[in-house]
Amino acid sequence: MIVFTGEALIDFIPVRDSSGHRAYQPAPGGSVYNTSIASARLDVPTAFFGGISRDFFGDRLAVNLEENGVSSGMVQRFDAPSTLAFVDKTPSGEARYAFFATHAADRQLRVKDIPALNDDVAALAFGSIALIGDPAGATILSLIEKEHVSGKRVISFDPNIRESLITDSSGYRQRVERGIAAATILKISDEDLRWISGTDDIATAAQALLQKGPALVVVTAGSNGSTGFFGDQSCSTPAERTTVVDTIGAGDSFHAAILAWLHHSRRLSRESIASLTVAEVQAMLRFASAVAAKTCGRAGADPPRLSEVQTRFRSWG
């Protein structure tokens, strides 16, 4: 099983009503929440650990987990409002966000809420805006660092940085650094890598991050494809061609697909990830690219099911 921990919120996606006027349609979202849904749709045993409101938006978030096969036994419900994220799209289909998250439920997690993890939990995945607000940010880092020290499980981190929400840049950078140091896998966009490293030299920056702890760094670059860095090696794969409706949830689906490939390949362990070959990393990136492309071809965060992408990638190894 993979446990995903982070924010759960409501995205308001721009649409046109029957008269052609601009409107917003609410949909369950949040980076790590989306990744958990994508993971379950790829036939991976999946659970979500996070705070969800008891309001009607929270009810929708909880039901959506269940309907997609994500275990909600670790979910904590709070008498606090749901985080709301209004999404705007640029002409190229890129997403921009405005968040309303003050005192929201997904920020309420405390150390006492951390569940006991059974031996069937092979991996933990975390990241994004959940690291910004406390007490949830401190709680998630506490869990991740404890599990890193134990050495029992794979830890996967996608920073998915939202600069507009960061009020303490220095403090947040320290949290990102702690996340990187604890991670087995770092999935990161080229934009986030530039923000962290301060350089446009992607290869040099990724290799530097490898030295900080991860066994695998995967850098995504949108339509320019993705590159995996591991040991002293690297390999790239082009982006899957698709007609882009929007990019909402594309990176989240890519992250889920990396973990799904490792799960189905029986390589979801620290030792196996550290010994991946170039051919295996290329196969993993091709699969993740196909999953992300399917997501980009649909409105909102609507990742594909395994049956939609498996036919082109019958061999997991």
Which SSEs are present, and which pair or pack?
Layout: E1 2-5, E2 9-16, E3 22-29, H1 31-41, E4 46-49, E5 51-53, H2 56-67, E6 70-71, E7 76-78, E8 83-89, E9 95-100, E10 123-127, H3 136-150, E11 154-158, H4 169-182, E12 185-189, H5 190-197, H6 202-210, E13 216-220, E14 226-230, E15 233-237, H7 250-264, H8 270-274, H9 278-296, H10 306-309
Parallel strand pairs: 1-4, 1-10, 2-8, 4-6, 5-7, 10-11, 11-12, 12-13
Antiparallel strand pairs: 2-3, 8-9, 13-14, 14-15
Describe this structure in a few short sentences:
This protein is an alpha/beta fold.
Explain what this protein looks like in three dimensions:
The chain has helices at 31-41, 56-67, 136-150, 169-182, 190-197, 202-210, 250-264, 270-274, 278-296, 306-309; strands at residues 2-5, 9-16, 22-29, 46-49, 51-53, 70-71, 76-78, 83-89, 95-100, 123-127, 154-158, 185-189, 216-220, 226-230, 233-237. A hairpin with a 5-residue loop joins strand 13 (216-220) and strand 14 (226-230). The model has no long low-confidence stretch (mean pLDDT 93). It has a single domain (2-312), classed as Ribokinase (UDP-N-acetylmuramoyl-L-alanine:D-glutamate ligase, 3-Layer(aba) Sandwich). The longest helix is centred in the C-terminal third of the chain and has 19 residues, at 278-296. The protein has 317 residues and is of the alpha/beta class.
The multimeric state of the shown protein is: single chain
Q: Radius of gyration over alpha carbons?
A: 18 Å
Total domain count: 1
CATH-defined superfamily: Ribokinase
Number of β-strand runs: 15
Distance between the termini: 20 Å
* Alpha-beta classification: alpha/beta
* Large-scale geometry: globular
Q: Quote the beta fraction.
A: 15-25%
Low-confidence stretches: none
